[in-house]
Design a protein that fits this description.
The protein is 59% helix and 14% strand. By secondary structure, the chain is of the alpha+beta class.
Length: 102
Amino acid sequence: MLTSVDPDVIRALGDPLRLRIVALLARETLCTTHLVEETGAKQTNLSNHMKVLREAGLVETEPCGRFTYYRLKPEVLDGLSERFAGLAASARTAAENKRACP
């Protein structure tokens, strides 16, 4: 059931910029500078979005000198994917079920 997924993960992925960041991080580990270049977001705005993604448990950080690199945590997306796949399977089997109105 989807209710067992951390609501912060769903909320974090609900923002178009954060979803774009997750898509970028799915391809490679990037620092803040790279993410600013790729998204066109201002650095302060991007930092706020990264905080939301970190707090939701979707990304982890790696300090490297004066830069911070971000890496996606695929296991979190795996769990979310499994929940959605379960909902889809349930919807397929329940397609013929119709509760009668009183």
